[in-house]
Design a protein that fits this description.
Blueprint lengths: L1 E9 L2 E9 L9 E10 L1 H8 L15 E9 L9 E5 L14 E4 L5 E2 L6 H23 L9 E3 L5 H12 L4 E5 L5 H7 L3 E4 L1 H4 L10 E6 L3 H9 L1 E9 L13 H5 L3 E4 L7 H14 L5 H4 E5 L3 H9 L6 E5 L3
Parallel strand pairs: 8-9, 8-11, 9-10, 11-12, 12-13, 14-15
Antiparallel strand pairs: 1-2, 3-4, 3-6, 3-15, 4-5, 5-7
Length: 327
Amino acid sequence: MFKGILIDKDDNGYRATLQEISDDQLPEGDVTVRVAYSTLNFKDGLAITGSSPVVRKFPMVPGIDLAGTVEVSGHPDYKVGDQILLNGWGVGEGHWGGLAQKARLNGDWLIPLPKAFTAAQAMAIGTAGYTAMLSILALEHNGVTPDQGEVLVTGANGGVGSFAIALLSKLGYRVVASTGRTAEHDYLKQLGASEIIDRATLSEPGKPLAKERWAAVIDSVGSHTLANACASTRANGTVAACGLAQGMDFPASVAPFILRGVTLAGINSVTQPKARRILAWNRLAKDLDFALLPLISHEIGLSEAIDAAPRLLAGQLRGRVVVDVNR
């Protein structure tokens, strides 16, 4: 038996509870992992609260990230005792995820835990930091360099935004952070933001084209914010879209793309091939200032995760929430 958060939906309604779970309830998979740490992401918050139908089958253990130790393996790449890491692949949505003390998974979804990180550090980074790095790789692929001008980061207080600011700043970019939380200005400056703007300047309906400002954008917000970011991106700039905190809609015009040659690069962190995942994590090991992890993240126990989920969705939690599943 092991502890885990189990989400169920039946005639009695939708509920998430911390339960004792039997090993024989684990789903199919060729690698069984003793989980050390997981995380609480925006998607996990939606799953736990039922605010959005992200869970595709019931019962479900949420948790799109996990790090731990291989306990049983039928996969050629992994043996008992190996330290592994997982982000995405639909875990916590269609396959049991990381917010439990054990997980049984498809070994093809895993990568070895990079030696630069402890399990706790890897989860402090998690899907958020990994997505931020995928976004930066997209900017680099399109030739964006620090000398070209400012980079806008929206949703700056969230996990992706926090890591995007820290990484871009260390790589030499001048970062402008967009946030609606004025109390967090010092935090964003500590991460490396050069300037902070009010998200209200981007979050309302705007013009098809605005004054050119951004050499590039990393956007985790979507909706009007993404549309306005594209409208004010400079000629031949790149906008990396990786989130939808404001909404899934994109109320924009083609004008930035056909008149200024702006590139809109979609960032899919869920089903990236293994080589791309390893590249992103190796870059995180090289380009992230580990000293910032305690500033960006905080740790809770598994028993606290259900109560933390609605606060996360309400924007009341800064940065990353790491979950120690063994307390």
